[in-house]
Structures are given as C-alpha cells and as structure tokens.
UniProtKB/TrEMBL annotation:
Organism: Solidesulfovibrio fructosivorans JJ]
PROSITE patterns, A to Z: MOLYBDOPTERIN_PROK_3 (PS00932)
Entry cofactors: [4Fe-4S] cluster; W-bis(molybdopterin guanine dinucleotide)
Protein name as it appears in the record: Formate dehydrogenase, alpha subunit
Transmembrane segments: none
Subcellular location as annotated: Periplasm
Taxonomic lineage: Bacteria, Pseudomonadati, Thermodesulfobacteriota, Desulfovibrionia, Desulfovibrionales
Broad class of the protein's primary localization: periplasm
Length: 804
C-alpha cells in the first residue's frame, strides 16, 4: 500500500476491483464506509454482486480477465476528455519523456520481441538522451514521441464500444464508472484504488496494477491523502513476509538477489545500482551498496564484506525460481527434500494434482503446521497409493500466532508488535524456536562431518536466543541494525559518535565500509532506544490530525512515513494541493506533517530541490514503465484459457511472455466447447486460506461446511441444476464436486455477441477435513503465471459444470 488503512477515510472516491472487501477485509472496509459517510463515492467492479457491491454507490460487472481492457478504456476516457491533472502530470510523471527511435507497437507486440525466446529486448524501449546523457523532455506534451502522446495513441483503440464488447460491461456502466472516479483528477480531490487477488492472479497481473497506477498518475492521486494504490492482503503479515524476502528474486528490503555473474560485491553494486544524470533526481536506489553491505554484515559480522558476499546463494542467470517453476522442477524429480512451513501447497497451488504428484517424487518432506494438512498427508489422499509413494513425511507441530511474541507488518506498512497471549500447548513450539534449534543441529553436523560448502553455515551469526529460547527482540534489533565499529556522523548538523553495538537511528546512516549492519534497511529505525513497533501513542499535531496520521502509534516503514511519495502531495513550491487534507507542507524552511520523502527543499528550488518519486532513478512517476517483462505499457491480452478466439485490440490473443510449462496437465482450453464457462476462485468470510485453521474450528465449519459453486439462474436452468444440487466441475486438469448455489449475484455476460457464463468457487477446502467437505478448487486451475512474478492465473480459467 502506498497509503494506509485509516487514510482511506480521506478519499473522495474509492474504486474497489478484484476484491470483495466488505467480506474478506471487513476491518479495513470500515474506513471506506467512513469516507462514504462524509460524501465519498464507492465504486465496485466485479463479476459477482457481493456485500461490497451492496454498499457501493456504483456497481458494475466485469468478466474475469478483461481488466486491462477496462482500464485501457479508462485511460482513453481521461485523455479524450482532458480530465487529467496537467500540472501534476507534467511536473511529477514521465509523460514528457521522449522515447528513442527503436520503440514501436504493432499487432499486440512491442518492439524487441523474440518469438523463439518468448522474451523482449527491453533496450528497444529506451528513452532518447541528449549529449550530456539526460533524458530528452517536452513539457508541452506535444512531441509525437513523448510518453503522453504514445499513451494517447496506444489506448485510442480502447473505445467504450470495444471495451464493452470484450469485457461484457455495458457502455453506460463504463461511462458512469469513468466519469465518477475521474472527477478526482482536480487538485482539491483525491481517489483511491483498492485491489486484491482478483487483480493480481492473472498472466497479466503486474500489468493490471500498472494500468491502475497510470490512471492514478494521470489524475494526480499518488502521494496524496485519500489516494494511492492500495493492496488488500490475504494475510495479516503478507507485507512483512515480502519485506523480509519471501520471494526468490529479492533479499530483505527489496535488494535484488545476486546471480552467478555477480562474482563480487563490487560487481553486484555496479550491475544493480541505478544511475542518473539529472541533479534533481534523488535516485534513492543509488544507496543500494550501503544497504547490501549492511545486510551482508548482519549475517557475517566477523567476515570481510567480500567473503560474506561470497557466502550468499546466487541465482542461475535467466532461470525462473518462482513457485510454479519450483513445483514443475519437483514434478520432474529435481528435488530430494522440501520444507512446507506454515503452508499447504497440496491445496493452495494451482494445478494441485500436479503438485501432489510432484511431492510423491521426493525422498523426504517436513511439514510445520498446527493441524494435519493435505500437504502432510498427500500420500494417502485422493488418487494416491501409499505403497507407491516413497516420500518420508515428518510433521513438526508449531504454536499458533497468539502463542508467540513478535511483529507483523500490515498492508499499510505498519510494523506492530504483538505479545504472546498464552504459552504454547503440549509439545508445540513457536516457529522461531524450531528454526533456531534446527539450525543449531545442522551447524553441529557440519562441524562434525564437514560438507560441500560449510563456511556459510559455520560462520553465520546465530545469537538469537535467550536462555536457550528464541528471542524475537534480538532479531528485531539486528533487523534495525547496529554499528559494528566506532563511527562519527552528522546528526542534525552536529557530529555524533556511535559506539559498537549502538542501534542505527535510520537507514541514512548505513555505511558501505562494513561498519554497520542491518538485516533489512527499510526497517532501520524500528528498534532504536526502544521498540518503536510497540508504541501506542495517539498524539498528533493539528495538521496530522486532519488526515489521521497517528505517527506515535506503532511504526511504519520507511522511517515512520505514513504516505509514500508524499512530496507529490504539494505543488513545486511545497504548498499542499489539498490544504483541507495536507500530508506535508514546506513551511519556514522545513517540512511539517508526515515524514517527508526526503528532507530536501521543494522541486521549485532547482539547485537543492528534488523530484517526488525518489525510488525511481529519474524521480518521476512511471506512466511508461520500461522495466516489465511483458511491455512498457499495459496491453490487453486474454487469459491463457479464455472463451474467445480473438479480441478487437490486436492480433495477439494471449500474453506472449506468460510463464508456461509443458506436460500432460498443461493443456489449455481456448474456445473449447467441452469447457465453456469462465471460472474464478475466491474467499469467504468464514474460512481462511486453505482452511487448515478454520476447517478445524467447528463453529466456522458449521457456517460454511462444504465446497460450493455459485452460478446464475440462467446457467442453472440450461444445465438442469437446482439450488443445493451436487455438481461436478471439470477442467483439463481434473474434476471435483460442489454444492450448487443458484443466485442472481452472478449474471451472464454478452461478449463479442456471444453469451458467456461465469461461475465461482471458494478455495478454502481440502479432503482431510471435513470428510464430506470436498477438495481444493485449485485442482481446476492452470499452472500458468505472470512473466514478472510467476503468480498463477487462478481468477480466470475455463471449466465445465454438470449435475452430478
């Protein structure tokens, strides 16, 4: 989230898409209702009418998978009607940047595409530069090669009529949504966009969010109170786990994972640190060498930097290590063992039967959980013969969340400390204790027996226990960072000497010379003289109280900043675009309000001022984003499985760079009469994730006891299905049963002149419990993914539904 939960109440218009926030994020949704109480409009765009829709001022249906068509039409509507916030667009985005001669777009493909590699040469999307190496710009936005004009040309195809034909959304509904939200594109108003997995779990998931971001940049809604792009996470600590390197391609703090060509820390810095020739760009990632050096030292404080860096695992260049790729490799026998820690991939992974088959090819597997799961007992599940499964499975019972102490970071980047409500039951242990003891044993074995590469294990800092029990405070202090050597630095204009062991006050003081360590630079400042995440102070200045910043309540990364890119909330002179709800203001030579995105003067100061988007190398919001694997602008592509054989925008039906695999379960249904219905998975309030906890809670199971399939009355009549009947859903990957819920919440779409039906199923069930509860919806989903992240396409795929 660029903003935070409370800030939603400051919005004048809230667009919710790919989410049923009222049911799946009810605590956060209350802030949308508070905004509505003050006159804000709520817009809900979804294939299904839900409790969120019931609260909305504007609701419209959208066929799953057609989101970029919807947003492409929105971009065209804004440009065609001159509804963009011009001063913001010119001063704070790359709309004025001029593209080089290599950039082109034709028939659904951008320039630089290699059909053999199914990949783009991104150098074809470079900006034109002058003799001094600076990007050429046209502040008038008239140059035909400037981003603004390229954007206008690109989305000129996305007319209301054409978008309506492919999405199934009526033209009048499209116009109402566009008109209502575009009204925020003036200085005194702001609009926010809330999204969830309905936007991301697609082969164009990243570009879906990019399209939203382009709209928000055009309307001047980034960095302001009540604005931003805000993700509704599926768990309380998704943000925290991502911050701390849950994903393979990043280290903690979003540092790129090194690959094998980066043989030294120096080479790593040279290859990953962005440069700029523009003196007004803060180019904050230019500090990456400081953060990487401090991270290495957090692991290996007694080693020199190059040695510590050599211990880090390196990726093979060009190899995909994402979730789907990992299980595809496991299916081919590439793994001997697997830890399934606090997860249930036998139920949660797309193409779940393939996942279960892959696990059968392991030598061993360890599951760490609070109940038996489909993963831990896959070997005795549907379609499995235990006598033919060689995998030895170990189960380690762990404590639940309220039996352990530590922090979580919510979607709004608030790091909040939580205390144990009670001691773990029986022989269960907190995850931290299990990890700590496991590594102690592993290190002892390395010391005794040796190994292929023992030094990274033997030399790792592992002082994270007190009285032989895992100590979350010790970990939090290292994440924050400490000085390893005596260092004298400027603090508030005066010299201050820090001793070894002193906490690092903020990431601005991290060093490249190995004198500081930090396990995660964005969390530097979270545990200094006290545990900042444990604060519960509601004090605010009158200015902060206008928008509810609450700077003393817990701690937000980075440096307790509550709204990211908040330098864009003021004009180039530092005056708030919205004085009635200011985020920051330049007053008497300093910033007041929120912690500013850098302490420099406003942009109008051409010598000392900086652009607002400090994490971008050129300091501007990226309307044109040349870093993505599937194009610098979002282009509409159908899901890999879809009900249409062509679409009106181009000759390229699907994302040409989508992550795909080969094999008998990798056949995709396109206009296949055997699988005529669009299907999407979703959540319900009563269950959580794969249901491991909630299916084992009798009162929740009583509320939602079985797998079900929602369908329209029209589809039910066509197939002779009655409400409550048992039905079979089939895809090219497998089948499962469900109870039919016939409801007007779902309605058929008219797409390209054809009637298209959509059904929906929850993904919380599995075969372990209850015995008559059904199985995972992910049996039906294809193992195809976004080319940038590898996230699977579980929100739009093709099935058949028939009465059992």
């Amino acid at each position: 989230m660029t903003n935070h939960w409370i800030d939603i109440a400051n919005s004048d218009c809230i667009l919710i898409i790919g989410s049923n926030a009222a049911e799946n994020h009810p605590i956060s949704f209350k802030w949308a209702l508070r905004a509505q109480d003050k006159g804000a409009k709520i817009i809900h765009v979804d294939p299904r009418y839900t409790r969120t829709s019931a609260h909305a001022d504007v609701f419209t249906r959208l066929r799953s998978g057609s989101d970029i068509a919807f947003f492409g039409g929105f971009i065209r509507y804004i440009l065609a009607n001159n509804l963009y916030f011009k001063d913001y667009v010119v001063n704070y985005t790359n709309a004025s940047f001029i593209l080089g001669d290599k950039f082109d777009f034709k028939d659904g493909l951008f320039s630089g595409y290699d059909p053999v590699k199914r990949a783009y040469d991104k150098s074809a999307w470079a900006f034109a530069k002058d003799v001094d190496g600076r990007i050429k710009k046209d502040p008038t936005l008239r140059d035909p090669r400037c981003v603004f004009q390229i954007l206008r040309k690109h989305y000129d195809r996305y007319t209301l009529k054409t978008v309506s034909e492919i999405s199934g959304t009526p033209e009048a509904d499209l116009q109402l949504v566009y008109q209502t939200f575009a009204a925020t594109g003036v200085p005194e108003k702001s609009g926010t966009m809330l999204y969830a997995m309905g936007q991301t779990q697609h082969t164009v998931g990243v570009q879906n969010i990019r399209a939203m971001s382009i709209v928000q940049l055009l309307l001047g809604n980034m960095g302001v109170a009540g604005g931003g792009i805000n993700a509704l996470r599926g768990e309380a600590n998704v943000q925290g786990s991502t911050d701390h390197a849950l994903l393979y391609h990043i280290l903690p703090g979003y540092l790129p994972t090194p690959n094998a060509t980066m043989e030294s820390l120096q080479v790593y810095g040279e290859k990953t640190t962005p440069m700029t020739k523009d003196p007004q760009s803060a180019n904050w990632w230019g500090n990456r060498p400081k953060y990487m050096a401090s991270f290495v030292k957090s692991l290996y404080p007694d080693q020199n930097l190059e040695t510590g860096y050599s211990y880090l695992p390196k990726l093979e260049p060009g190899k995909n290590y994402s979730w789907l790729s990992m299980f595809d490799a496991m299916h081919k026998g590439a793994f001997k063992g697997f830890f399934a820690w606090g997860q249930n991939p036998a139920a949660s992974t797309a193409n779940a039967n393939k996942t279960r088959e892959a696990m059968a090819k392991l030598d061993w597997m360890v599951t760490v959980n609070i109940f038996e799961t489909e993963t831990g007992s896959f070997w005795k599940g549907p379609g499995m013969d235990p006598k033919k499964v060689k995998t030895e499975v170990f189960f380690l019972p762990c404590a639940v969340a309220f039996e352990k102490e530590g922090s979580i970071s919510n979607s709004g980047r608030w790091m909040q400390w939580r205390y144990a409500a009670q001691k773990p039951l029986g022989d269960t242990k907190p995850d931290g204790d299990i990890i700590f003891e496991l590594f102690e044993k592993i290190r002892a074995l390395y010391a005794k027996e040796g190994g292929a590469f023992p030094d990274p294990i033997k030399n790792l800092k592992w002082d994270f226990a007190t009285n032989h029990a895992f100590d979350s405070h010790k970990v939090a202090k290292i994440i924050n960072g400490v000085f390893l050597k005596e260092k004298t630095l400027k603090v508030g204009g005066k010299d201050k000497t820090f001793k070894p062991g002193d906490p690092v006050p903020s990431f601005a003081m991290l060093q490249t010379d190995g004198s500081t360590c930090s396990g995660n630079w964005i969390y530097s400042g979270s545990y200094t003289d006290k545990n900042m995440a444990a604060r519960r102070d509601k004090t605010q200045t009158p200015m902060q109280a206008k928008i509810g910043l609450y700077p003393g309540w817990t701690w937000a990364w980075p440096v307790n900043r509550r709204i990211l890119y908040n330098r864009a909330s003021v004009d180039p002179q530092g005056k708030p675009w919205q004085p009635q709800k200011p985020v920051i203001e330049w007053k008497d030579g300093k910033w007041v309000g929120d912690v500013p995105d850098g302490g420099w003067p406003p942009m109008a100061d051409s010598k000392k001022g900086k652009y607002p988007f400090i994490m971008e190398s050129e300091g501007m919001g990226q309307i044109f984003g040349p870093g993505r694997n599937d194009g610098p602008l979002p282009e509409y592509y159908e899901p890999l499985e879809c009900p249409v054989g062509e679409h009106p925008f181009s000759k390229q039906l699907n994302n040409p760079t989508a992550l795909t695999f080969t094999g008998p379960t990798e056949v995709h249904a396109v206009c296949d009469p055997r699988y005529p219905f669009v299907c999407s998975t979703y959540r319900v309030t009563e269950h959580w994730q794969t249901g491991v906890m909630t299916r084992n809670s009798p009162w929740l199971l009583e509320a939602e006891p079985q797998m079900f399939c929602e369908m329209s009355p029209q589809l039910a009549k066509m197939r002779g299905i009655g409400n409550g009947d048992k039905v079979i859903l089939e895809s090219t990957r497998g089948s499962l049963w469900a109870k039919a819920i016939v409801t007007e919440r779902l309605q058929p779409f008219t797409v390209m002149g054809h009637t298209i039906h959509q059904v929906g199923v929850p993904w919380h069930y599995g075969w372990t419990w209850p015995k008559e509860g059904g199985d995972s919806a992910n049996i039906l989903c294809p193992s195809v993914g976004d080319p940038n992240t590898g996230i699977p396409e579980t929100k739009a795929f093709m099935v058949n539904v028939k009465k059992a």
